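re: that complex we talked abt at group meeting.

here r the seqs, copy pasted straight from the sheet so there may be weird spacing, ignore it
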Amino acid sequence: MTVTCDLTITLDGYAAGHRQTEQRPFGDDGGDGWGDRLHAWYGEGREEHPDEFDRMLTAKAFIMGRNMFGPVRGPWDRPWTGWWGDEPPYHGPVFVLTHHPREPQPMAGGTTFHFVTDGIEAAMDRAREAAGDGGISVHGGATTVNQYLAAGLIDELRLHVAPFTLGAGVRLFDGVPPLNLEQLDARSTPSVTHLRYRVLR
Amino acid sequence: MTVTCDLTITLDGYAAGHRQTEQRPFGDDGGDGWGDRLHAWYGEGREEHPDEFDRMLTAKAFIMGRNMFGPVRGPWDRPWTGWWGDEPPYHGPVFVLTHHPREPQPMAGGTTFHFVTDGIEAAMDRAREAAGDGGISVHGGATTVNQYLAAGLIDELRLHVAPFTLGAGVRLFDGVPPLNLEQLDARSTPSVTHLRYRVLR
Ligand SMILES: NC(=O)c1ccc[n+]([C@@H]2O[C@H](COP(=O)([O-])OP(=O)(O)OC[C@H]3O[C@@H](n4cnc5c(N)ncnc54)[C@H](OP(=O)(O)O)[C@@H]3O)[C@@H](O)[C@H]2O)c1
Ligand SMILES: NC(=O)c1ccc[n+]([C@@H]2O[C@H](COP(=O)([O-])OP(=O)(O)OC[C@H]3O[C@@H](n4cnc5c(N)ncnc54)[C@H](OP(=O)(O)O)[C@@H]3O)[C@@H](O)[C@H]2O)c1
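got the structure back, here u go
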């Protein structure tokens, strides 16, 4: 089974700004609504980006960081079940990395959020077990992706590069030791360039 | 006339490592010969990358930083006429940014290196005058490119992205305020992805 990672970044490599809040989940570095600009391609949907949507949907288990899951920091002091409404698009187990334990959160449509407090390898082991022969998707943010890249646990990196720079924020590859990659393909549309790489060992 | 910039970078945005020397012009961050790996596409030549070579050759005046010109730092304490032998590939005026004055250096084939000590705008003015209706190419390294990007003086950015990361060095966009770009095209080959952007004002 393949471990893939999809991440949308600015041309200068940022996946999010600093100072994320519930009102500004992507932080305040790019001004109001810059997250929408970053993810414009996503809003254009499957029609415009068929390969990319197909590939993202094939994973059987997902891993994400707690900041991607939501804006709650520190102890879980209020109900929060993700940004995606009652029926999240995952339809399978999602392992959320956090230092703050919490009971699993089942949702409609087969998604369950599991909160993993014993680190990235433990989360990967649980995802492998859940995925069986299926794929695993490391889903972001960059803080999480960088840890998995540094640990050599990602097989395929799919970057979606938006045509602007941010200048500050949480940067993909920050602190990750040098990687060798094999280029698989590149395709540009007005809103994004899709780049696909195999990570070599 | 259009001001273009061609720069080859790693997937994490580095154009050079730290601690550049005559033996290791790209610095020592990527180990021996990593600069060759970065510029592998360039070695493959016009046959494999016709559009990119054609575009680079059309400029009528060039601007580069002193570190791209050579390994001499501080006062010009020894003869140095560039990395490119007696007949450099520029065939026109090349304006080299430096804090250390030096007489112009004419070379075979129409290249003359001019040393500009009064800053990026002065170098651009001289390049404009020399180029007439022709194009101007800001040729690197990243320290120079970043200054021109920050000053809003580049019209078209052509990045050649090599399929590996470096993790440290001189990074494109470092310290450059946010830019809006219009994506022109993307093309991948096994050794490099060519990305082309118009810089919007
Ligand atoms: N551009 C994209 O494609 C994309 C994709 C996803 C998300 N995003 C955006 O990126 C931002 C979130 O990314 P991010 O990089 O800030 O954070 P993130 O990776 O989503 O989450 C980081 C948090 O997860 C927990 N965590 C991470 N690794 C851990 C470990 N090994 N052990 C225990 N807990 C761990 C920690 O939370 P605690 O210590 O608080 O528990 C940490 O602060 C959001 O703005 C989101 O909207 C963008
Ligand atoms: N990846 C690529 O496509 C590519 C392209 C070109 C070069 N490179 C590599 O990149 C490295 C050089 O890049 P770099 O970013 O280190 O340096 P650079 O931009 O080539 O040169 C920087 C130097 O130019 C002078 N300079 C720059 N701006 C100036 C200004 N406004 N006023 C006066 N002087 C100014 C300064 O030299 P002084 O103060 O010493 O005079 C400064 O240290 C080399 O390793 C080269 O091989 C890579």
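couple things i noticed - The CA atoms of residues 183 and 197 of chain A lie 5 Å apart. Chain A has a mean pLDDT of 94.
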